[in-house]
Amino acid sequence: MRTKRSWLTVAVSLLLAVSGVPASAQVSFAPSMSVGTVAPLARVGGAPEGDALLKGGYLYAPGPSGLQIFDVTGADAPVLVGDVLLPGYPFVVSVDAGLAAVGCLSGPVQVVDVSDPAEPRALGAWLAGTQTESWSAVEDVCVLAGRLYVTSHDRGLEIVSLANPASPVRLGAMTPAMMVRYRNIAVSGVRAYLEVQDFARHSTSLQIVDVANPTLPAPRGVYDTN
After folding, report:
1. How many CA atoms lie within 13 A of 217 on its CB side?
2. Could you tell me the CA-to-CA distances from 194 to 5, 47, 48, 70, 127 in Å, in that order?
3. How far lies 123's CA from each of 85, 103, 164, 170, 190, in Å?
4. Does the reported pTM lie above 0.85?
């Protein structure tokens, strides 16, 4: 089961504040890390362990059969405006600039065109880590400025270009040490923030990574959350 991520929201917010980053600066979080934007899928009829994302008046809800998009601008109840069938039991979604990345429990990360919420279209897919079409290593996904950031069991962090969404291309990666796993991820500008679980030390920390050069992501600091 995926870990709760509220501590990462607080840690990243504090770090941005002390760094002098204005509150209006764009920060792209994986869905359940966005303050005030999380809705469990059980409330909208999807998979209870999935993560839903509220953005721009729409709720993006991954579930067993694909991705559903709800209009939540009304005062009464969400209205389903579009959906797309996706393989592999989608469980997490990130959206930016009309593109959605959907992590699945089995199979590739799916890249979906959501520029028209009423007509979402699957464009391409990315096999993270050493996963196969029937097994997924994905922990979390985040999409920002035409790049896909994926954390996985065995490859750590991968940065993928979505310049051609139909054919994603890996730009770079950062592999953790043995007995260490990268879990959840948030991205702001040229910084990625990773939840790092160290099984040997029984500890969890926040790793700050410089992704200005996506071919060579570089660790910049660690915040101990224990």
Report:
1. 26
2. 11, 25, 24, 29, 20
3. 12, 14, 9, 16, 26
4. no
